[in-house]
Amino acid sequence: MNDIKVDWKGHVEKYQTAMVELNLDFCILTRVKSITYLAGCFVPWKSYIFLPKEGAGDPILYTVLLDTERVKAEGHLEDVQGWGPLKGFFIEKKIQKAAKKTGLYTSKGSPPRIGVELGLDICVTGQMLSHSEALLLEQVFPGCELVDFNEKTERIQFIKEPEEIALLRKASEITDIGQVTVKKELEERPSGKIFTENEIAGIGTLAMRKAGSNYEWTFTGNQEIGSGYRASWTFNGCTPATNKKVNESESLLVDLHSEYGCYLGDLSHNYILGKCPSELKAFNDVYEQLCYTLIDNMYPGNSFEECYQEVRKVAEKAGYENDLFFGIGHGIGCIGNESWPVIVPGKEWGPMIFEENMVEIAAIVFNRPGLGGLRLESPTLVTRKGAEVLPKTPFEVDYV
After folding, report:
1. Rounded (5°) CA angle 245-246-248
2. What residues does 60 pair with on adjacent strands?
3. Domains of the chain: residue spans and CATH
4. Which of 119, 227, 242, 382 is the most buried (most CB within 10 A)?
5. Model confidence pLDDT, tens digit, residues 8-62
6. 236 backbone dihedrals φ, ψ, rounded to 5°
7. What is the rounded distance in angstroms from the CA atom of residue 390 to the CA atom of residue 386?
């Protein structure tokens, strides 16, 4: 439990306000980020929220039968029901029954306008409405119109409330503790001791669990630990820990993930054990410049394109422009909110601007195969005065 109170009821009201703008009768929400945002608890199974328009009834959360009681006890929605692949529990029949009960659907009335979350997400936790689910809805609501609600979902969760920022700050404090503990263990390692990536992941996880983290949320292998060649692949932004031994004089990146009150922490930090080769040290120095340039350009009114170009200039000047990944940030928030928006150049994303009270993962992925690889991921709050990095772990590489 935590002592930071989020207005979960207000979250429902935000969604219902957006429904009015689209003239929807009800929504069937499937995205993990929507389910977490409205229910206020961890819901790991394939689940759905039936959200009627304002004044027509209360939302209903349908989750897999075996987890119904826990979700009911730990969440903030009063009506939680189980569904499953057996007679009497088919999800489409349960949704049809709810729509009839609220008076939003009758077999003789006009077909309903149903808000659903459509599209693609780079994360497997996206859970956009599938083709099969769409067919089931069209089967029980003949003639219905499925209206994409996904843009509303993204915008509603884009700007963070003060309580959400407080939870993200707490989650970042926890990842700081994880990094401090990892560094201490590396510094105090006995002579001849060689850690594996998995051991380092365990050290960070245990420290964060003790500090209050409930969940290593990432779908990319919990804590991401990469060393040597595993840290150095081109555009390498995914390093699930393995039993590889961490050697001296090679890149070691430690990417830790926490969760507190349904909100997420994501902090990557870089280490070198023993003597650092001079060429790698020079590469690391450029990485640090990239990090500070990124933070300096995350201010209200600046576009993603302009931010990216300023960061790229640093890499170009040092002759490393081909070693910088073009994505320099991604979203963060409640469980399931781990992609949108992505800070990249180009027509689709480049014109987006930084806005006050958005929280974005400042990200630098800087890799040269055969030399080394570094990663910054650090939740960053955009304020009126500029960017505030929530974790306290410094950007500089730690030479242990």
Report:
1. 130
2. 50, 79
3. 8-157 (3.40.350.10), 159-399 (3.90.230.10)
4. 227
5. 999 999 999 999 999 999 999 999 999 999 999 999 999 999 999 999 999 999 9
6. -80, 100
7. 13
Instruction: Identify the CA nearest to 358 among candidates 290, 313, 298.
Output: 298
Task: Give pLDDT tens digits for 204-241.
Answer: 999 999 999 999 988 888 899 999 999 999 999 899 99
With b for 16 or more beta-carbon neighbours within 10 A and e for fewer, the 13-46 pattern comes to: ebbbebbeeeebbbbbbbbbbbbbbbbbbbbebe
pLDDT in tens, 103-156: 999 988 899 999 999 999 888 888 999 999 999 999 999 999 999 999 999 999
- Say if pTM beats, i.e. exceeds, 0.90: yes
Give the chain as a 3 state SS string: CCCCCCCHHHHHHHHHHHHHHCCCCEEEECCHHHHHHHHCCCCCCCCEEEEECCCCCCCEEEEEHHHHHHHHHHCCCCEEEEECCCCCCCHHHHHHHHHHHCCCCCCCCCCCEEEECCCCCCCCCCCCCCHHHHHHHHHHCCCCEEEECHHHHHHHHHECCHHHHHHHHHHHHHHHHHHHHHHHHHHCCCCCCCCEHHHHHHHHHHHHHHCCCCCCCCCCCCCEEEEHHHHCCCCCCCCECCCCECCCCCEEEEEEEEEECCEEEEEEEEEECCCCCHHHHHHHHHHHHHHHHHHHCCCCCCEHHHHHHHHHHHHHHHCCHHHECCCCEEECCECCCCCCCCCCCCCCCCCCECCCCEEEEEEEEEEECCCEEEEEEEEEEEECCEEEECCCCCCCCEEC
- What is the percent of the chain with per-residue pLDDT over 70, rounded to a whole number? 100
Per-residue pLDDT tens digits for 236-284: 989 999 999 999 999 999 999 999 999 999 999 999 999 999 999 999 9
Residue type, 145: E
Q: What is the separation of C-alpha 198 from the centre of its chain, rounded to a whole number of angstroms?
A: 22
